[in-house]
Amino acid sequence: MEYARHSPGRGFRPWHSLLYYGQRIVVMPWMRDRVVQLLQRYVRLRTGKSPSTASGPCSAHLSRLRIEGYTPLGQLLTATQLHDIRAFLRDKPLTTKQAPGQRFVRASVPPDVRMADYAIADVVDCPHILALANSPELANLAAAYIGCKPTLSALGLRWSFPGQAACDELQTFHRDVDDWRFFKVFVYLTDVDVGAGPHVYVSHTHITPASMRLELLSDGDVSRQFADRKVHTITGESGFGFAVDTYGIHKGMPPTDTPRLMLTIQYSLLPNYLYKYRPLRRPELVGFDRYSNRLFLQN
Length: 299
Description:
Blueprint: H1 14-24, H2 29-47, H3 57-68, E1 70-75, H4 79-89, E2 94-95, E3 115-118, H5 120-125, H6 129-133, H7 136-146, E4 151-160, E5 182-188, E6 199-202, H8 219-225, E7 231-234, E8 240-244, E9 250-252, E10 260-268
Antiparallel strand pairs: 1-8, 2-3, 3-4, 4-10, 5-8, 5-10, 6-7, 6-9
Helix pairs in contact: 3-7
Protein name: Phytanoyl-CoA dioxygenase (PhyH)
């Protein structure tokens, strides 16, 4: 996804920068909760929706997500759906944030690349992605956790590769500060064991105070500061998904043996003003909630 400009210059939107940095400087959980309550009321008035409740399996996932910050969701994609996704992506170009002008396909990845992303238009057009993001199971979980109708605020398909290059910041323990309340659903699109770069999450840290500055933490820092917290190293077969409140401390382990392809879906209260959104006109994609999908699909 394309990053928005947060300093004066062409494309700078002061209001968006204020909204983005405003929520970053409020670090105490109880203060963030107060603002969340006000924003929930605003969204409910705007959408005409009452607070959502969870039932059945969604209730168990919601409870664990609220308490631990992490919950496994099981197999979210079938073998046929995974085949369709990989076939669609086979000839689609990849880019890196280090060299955004450089383009290559999966079959010819430069040796110094550690992480690479597909363009957002290809993510939207990829079969089964938006259908999964809007599935009743995930939409209901998102509405219940966010406390109102959620905004689909990020979509991504990213490869992580073994190699000798330095690790990316995302491969070091950190927090995401994307909105007042948000969470991500990650889906492995390749088999992920310890050698394929699994996601790692420190439980219960989504309800601990953060620092105003985004900090990178070493494994030793995490061991010292959060010795009483369970650290989840999340492995799974292709198609396995899990939900994580990434305000909590997490990282993606660098792959050592095999590459990893992962889908990211983010639900939040507001747009993530870190990004510049360009909704796409896709008349063939009908039936999805207009409000929740407004950042990616033109009404």
